[in-house]
Amino acid sequence: MQTRRHNWTKSVLAQQLKARAYESTVLAQSNFTDTLPAPQLPAAVLALRDEYTFGFLGLAAEHSEYELEQALLGNVRRFLIEMGGDFTFIGNQYRLELEDQEYFVDLLLFHRELQCLVAVELKITEFRPEYAGKMNFYLSLLNDKVKKSHEQPSIGIIICQSKQRTVVEFALRDVNKPIGVATYTLTDTLPAELRPFFPSNEELVRRLDAVTAALQGPAVGPR
Predict the structure, then answer these.
(1) Are 131 and 107 in contact (CB under 8 A)?
(2) Distance of CA 185 to the CA centre of its chain
């Protein structure tokens, strides 16, 4: 369904399968159930993953938030595919102002199906509870000063290098804006002990070719 919906190529589909995108979506942490109306909830849940794979960035293990942001900007198309397919890019370091003070959202996206702004904050540290409060503040400003009248309330996604699931749960418990917390990894390789159980990208593409050929039926030669 996701392949047809987002027009994924075979190579993109293979990468999504290898990254276990469905499993990551099921495990994703957010407060969407408590903060979004029922009609928006299914699409919002599908829009968030528990972990994003940024192996295409080629970053060193030690990197700054600026380097992470710049690498994502240089690979916007791959980044949006990894985010899930229904996102469009608006800008980076998106400026907000309140009482003569400036605030900047790392990345501002728009989700086509949800019809809402999506603020993305990038953190190279483990998740901290104060990140949720800061995102809640940004979403209030976006809703008041940026959101158009026909759009739905904004959603926030905090992407950290790591997280403690219980800490995330408590940090989001009483937050009244929809926020999801995810992690990222810079490698798309599986641990050595798991590799025998997962085919390579090339093998996945070969199998997809075989399935496609089978569905199309035997080729009809010239008469």
Answers:
(1) no
(2) 12
**Matching residue, tokens 């809402």:** 116
Place of tokens 């528990």: 50
pLDDT one-digit tens code per residue, 78-90: 999 888 878 999 9
What's the 3-state SS for the chain? CHHHHHCCCHHHHHHHHHCCHHHHHHHCEECHHHHCCCCCHHHHHHCCCCEEECHHHCCCCCCCHHHHHHHHHCCHHHHHHHHCCCEEEEEEEEEEEECCEEEEEEEEEEECCCCEEEEEEECCCECCHHHHHHHHHHHHHHHHHCCCCCCEEEEEEEEECECCHHHHHHHHCCCCCCEEEEEEECCCCCCCCCHHHCCCHHHHHHHHHHHHHHHHCCCCCCC
- Separation in Å, CA 98 to CA 118, 158, 177: 19, 22, 19
For the whole model, what pTM was predicted? 0.74
CB burial string 193-218: b at 16+ within 10 A, e below:
eeeeeeeebeebbeebeeeeeeeeee
Over residues 144-185, the pLDDT tens digits come to: 999 999 999 999 999 999 999 999 999 999 999 999 999 999
Q: Which two tokens stand for residue 110?
A: 């728009």
Task: Give the Cα separation of 187 and 150 in Å (integer).
Answer: 39
Residue 208: φ, ψ to 5°: -65, -40
User: Cα 58–71–85 angle (5° rounding)?
Assistant: 95
